[in-house]
Design goal:
- The chain is about 30% helix and about 25% strand.
- The chain is built from nine helices and 13 strands.
- Strand 9, helix 5 and strand 10 form a beta-alpha-beta unit.
- The longest helix is centred in the C-terminal third of the chain and has 15 residues.
- It is globular, with a radius of gyration of 18 Å.
- It is an enzyme of class 2 (transferase).
- One of its GO terms (cellular component) is cytoplasm.
- It catalyses: D-ribose + ATP = D-ribose 5-phosphate + ADP + H(+).
Amino acid sequence: MTIYNLGSINADFFYQVPHLPKPGETLAATEMASGLGGKGANMSVAAARAGAQVVHIGAIGNDGVWAKDRLTAYGVDTQHVAIVDTSTAQAVVSVDAQGENSIILWPGANLAIQKSVVTEALCEATEGDILLMQNETELQCFAADIARTNGMKIAYAAAPFCADAVQEILPYVDFLILNQVEAAQLMAATGKLVTRLGVEDVVVTLGSRGSRWNNHTHQTNQFFEAPKVDVVDTTGAGDTYTGYALALIDTGHTMATALNIAADAAALMVTRHGTADAIPTRNDVVQFSENLSR
């Protein structure tokens, strides 16, 4: 099957700093790097590297052709990445000595995706394909309507968190993934536990502690421990987890297997600097998993 990802594409600029800046503070970075990023692009690369067929739906400016080329080089179908008159999105990422980050995002072309681009892409989808979305673009409900008509499954990563956006898309969602902070924010907005929202599969990631999966139909709840690693950069770890999990589900693995492998991929990711360019390949993850002592 195929994963269609309506998602962001960013130019990421990374600055290694001794600590995250405080208000009014000027810091000198010790290292600087740039590369491909955006939650959407990260998830597309992760899913492709995990073995899925991935079609990315998005937009870049004329200054971002390199980003489209890099996605293609990583195995992502980019025929539905449009070039628009708005500059490519940018993210400025500060990373401290413990691997924690703070991010400033300029949305740029990510908010200029046209309905016609989404329609053209999803009209190629077939029953059982997956539509993946996040909150760095628009048109989520528009895309979900088309996906439902085509018999697609809908996966949604509730980040960056926006209570209104999440509640609007929830009736469409089959697979919801969010971190523990976002889960608390959603509970505050809805007055319900995320496991009581009627979504078939909900995964809450718990950082270094692991993740928890709840299935609505069978009322099952399972915890998955995360491997212990030395963290250098947490940027993109959640996106790596999501892309890997969906790719493995799409290629026929059980949920438990998919989430265990996704946890390994995310753990390996946090030992590296960078975002999409640093996402591990399937072979990387296999070798990493073989060396783990759980």
